[in-house]
Amino acid sequence: MSAIVQAPSGGPSFLRRMLRSPSAATGGAVVLFILALALLAPLIAPYDPNLQETANRLMPPDAAHWFGTDGFGRDILSRIIYGARPTLLLVLVVVLLMAPLGILVGILSGFFGGITERVLMRITDIVMSFPRLLLAFAFVAIMGPGLINGALALALTSWPAYARQARVETAALRRSDYLAAAEMVGIRGVRLLWGHILPLVLPSAIIRLALDLSGIILAAAGLGFLGLGVRPPTAEWGSMVSEGTQVIFDQWWVAAVPGVAILITSFAFNLLADGLRDILDPRHD
Amino acid sequence: MNALSVSDLSVTFQAGRKGFTAVRGVSFEVASGETFGLIGPSGCGKTTALRAVAGLNTRWQGSITVFDEALQPGQKITGALRSNIQMVFQDPYSSLHPRHRVSRILGEPLALRGVRNVEDEVRIALDQVGLPATAAGRYPHQLSGGQRQRVAIARALLLKPKLLLLDEPTSALDVSVQAEILNLLNDLKASHGMTFVLVSHDPGVVAHMCDRAVLMEAGRIESELDRAALSQGGWVEQLAVR
Amino acid sequence: MTEPLLSVEDLSIAFPSEAGPVRVVDGISFSVGREVVALVGESGSGKSMTGRAIMGLLPRRAEVRAKRLAFDGHELTTLAPSSWNRLRGSGLGLILQDPKYSLNPAHKVGRQVEEALLLHTKLSAAERRERALDMLDKVGLPDPQRVYTSYPAALSGGMGQRVMIAAMLINRPKLLIADEPTSALDRGLQDQILTLLRSLTEELGMGLLLISHDLQQVSRYADRVMVMRHGKIEEQMASADLANARSDYTRALWAARPSAATYGTRLPVYGGEA
Known about the structure:
The complex is a heterotrimer. Helices cover 72% and strands 0% of the residues of chain A. Chain A is an all-alpha fold. Chain A is elongated. Chain B has one domain (2-239): Rossmann fold, CATH 3.40.50.300. In chain B, 35% of the residues lie in helices and 29% in strands. Chain B contains 9 helices and 10 strands. In chain B, a hairpin with a 2-residue loop joins strand 1 (2-15) and strand 2 (18-31). In chain B, helix 6 (145-157) packs parallel to helix 7. The mean pLDDT of chain B is 90. Chain C contains 10 helices and 11 strands. In chain C, the strands form 2 sheets. Chain C has a 6-stranded mixed sheet, sandwiched between helices. By secondary structure, chain C is of the alpha/beta class. The model of chain C has no long low-confidence stretch (mean pLDDT 86). Chain C is 35% helix and 23% strand. The B-C interface holds B 41-42, 144-147, 150, 174-183, 186, 201-205, 207-209, 227, 230-233, 236-237, 239-241 and C 42-43, 156, 158, 186-189, 191-192, 213-216, 252-253, 256-260, 262-263, 266-270, 272-274.
C-alpha cells in the first residue's frame, strides 16, 4: 500500500520570495551596490582618496569632481566610495561578534533554565542597563580609537537583546513536541542545541540583525564623527561629516554628501530587514 | 513478564510555592502484546502519566518498570531501555521539526547509533509505513496530516521498540485518514510484536483499539475496563468534562 | 416544504495560482430551509470555502461564481458591502472552530455577546444586558452573571464555544452556519454542544448549516446530509437514509469510524488518500 505524496516539491525559492517583496528587493539591491562600491573601490574611484590638492579646496561639484572637494582638496566622490569600506567592515565585525554571542547566551539560558538561566540573564541585564553608545565611546576612549576597537565596543554592548530573544524562543521550544520527540530517539546535548534549536531561533535573530544594522551604521558614524573611529586621513563617512560641519553653511556638500550616504545605507538595511521579516516569519507558511 | 508495571505513580508540577498534582497514586499493569488504554476527560492526568513512562518528565514518585527494567525517577532514560520505549505524538505537525527534511528526521537517530547504510534504512522505514521513497526529500509542511503522522510512526519504530506509547495519535486527522492510520498501527503492532499504551479521549478509537483500559479522573484511576466493559460503552459518558 | 432560506445554484469558487486557477468548489447546488443540514467532507473538499462564500468572507482574490446564491430573498453575489454588514449579525450567523480565535481576548465577554445588538438594534444598554444574560443562560452556562463579566481567557473551550453561540444567536438570525464547531473540543463536550445547537435551532425556528468532517457524528443531529468531495457534492439525502447511501465514498466515510463493533477488524478505507 503506497500513499500518494501530494504536494510538489517546495514553494517559490527564497530568492524568488526576496524578489517579490519590494522592500527586500530594493534594500537588497542597494546593499549589494554599496558592497560592490567597497570591494571595487580601487577600480572605480576616480582619484586617490587621500590625494590633497590644496589649490582646489572646497570646490563645489563640477565635471572634474562630481561631489566637489573637501577642506584638503580631496575628491569627495572617491572618499565616499572608499568610505564604504570601514563602514561595512565595522558592520561585519559587529555582526560576527554580537549575534553569535547573544544567541549562545540566550539558547543556553533558555534550554537549561535554573541557575544557568538566572546567572546568564543577570549578566545580560547588567550589560543591557548600560547606555550603549556611551559605553562604546568610553571603551574607545580608553582603548584608543580605531576600527576594531569601535566594533568591539559596539558588539559587546549590543548582544543582550539577542540573548533575551533567543532565551524566550528557546524556552518556548523546550516544551514543544519535536524536541520531546528528538529526546526520545536519543538526540541530546550539543547536537540538539545546534541542529534542532538553533535553526528555529535563527530567523528572528536574522531579522533583528538586519534591523539593528542601520542603527549600528549610525553608531559607527557617530564614533567617526567624534573622532573615535578610524584615524585620519582614512576616509570614513562619519568623520567626513564631522569635517564638513566646520564649513557647513558655505560649502554644504562636504557634510551633506557623506550624510546622505549614511542615510541611504541605513535605510537600505532597514528595507532589507523589513522584507526579510515578511519572508522569514514562520506564520507566513 | 509484564510489558509495563506502574505502581503508585504520582506527578506534581511545581510553580513557585504552589504545586499541582496531576497524577495521584496511579497503578496499573500492561501485559505484553496488548493494547492498553489510558482514557478520561481532558485534564485527568492521562497524558502526564504517559509522558512519565516515556521519560519526558523525570519528576515523579512511585515505580515504573518496563519489561522488568525499572525507570529511575529524576534520571533520563538511557541505553537499551531508551530504544525500547518510543512514542507517537498527537499533532503530527508539531512533532516533526519544521526545518528538517524527512530524510534527516528519520536518518539522524540511525546515524547517531552508527548504522551504516542510513539511506537504505530510511527507505525501508518509509516503506514500512506506506510512504514512497520520494517522501524522504520533503519537509513536513509539504506533506498532508496523514503522511506526517506516518513519518512520526516511522520514526518511533526506528529503534525497534517493544513498548510504543501513543498520545492521541489520530485526533488531529480526518476520519478516513484516521482509519488508515489505525489500520497501519495495528498491522505494525502484529508484525513487530509490540505492546501499545494508548491515550485517547475518543470513545470510538478506544473501543476499536484497546484490549483493556483504565479510566482516569482528576489524577486518579476511577475504574478498570476489560474488553467486555469496553464493548458495552457505559463508560463513554465519563469522558465528558464535568 | 417551506420556502428555503438559502438557495445555492451552481456555485464555483476558484483561487488564482501560478499554475492557473484552482477550483476548490466546482458547481454545487443545494438549499437550506428551517432545518439542520450537514455539509460533510474531508480536508480539501471545499466545505469550509462554501460556508465562507455564503457569508461573503472569502479573501478578495477568490473568484466566486454562481447562477444563484440567495439568502432570504437577497441575491448575495451582487450585494453591496453595506448591505453585507447588515446581513451578517442579523440575518446570518457564523460559528467557527476555535473560540480562542473568534473571541477578542481584550474585551469582556458580555460586551462581545451584545455586540450584534449594538450594531443592529436600538435597544438600550439595560435591555441589551438583559438579552445577553438571557442568551448566556439559554446556552447552558451555569453562571451567566459571572461569565458576562469575565474575559475570554477565563473560559474553558466548551464555555467559550457556548459564548460564541450566544453571541451569534442573540439577534435571532434566520440562518446559522457552524464550521466545525466542535472539532477543538473534547469528545464528550462535542455531543453537548451539538445537542444545544440542534435544540436552539428548533426553538428559534432557524436554519442551521453544520459543516464537519465527521459523518457519523453530525448525522445524529442533522435532518439532511450532503457529502462533499473534491469540490463537488457527492450525494445528498435525509440522514435517516445514510445507511442506504448509494455512493461508495459515502459508504466508506460512514464505515470508517472506529467503534466497539470494529474491534479486531480492519477499518474500511476508500481508495487511499492519506
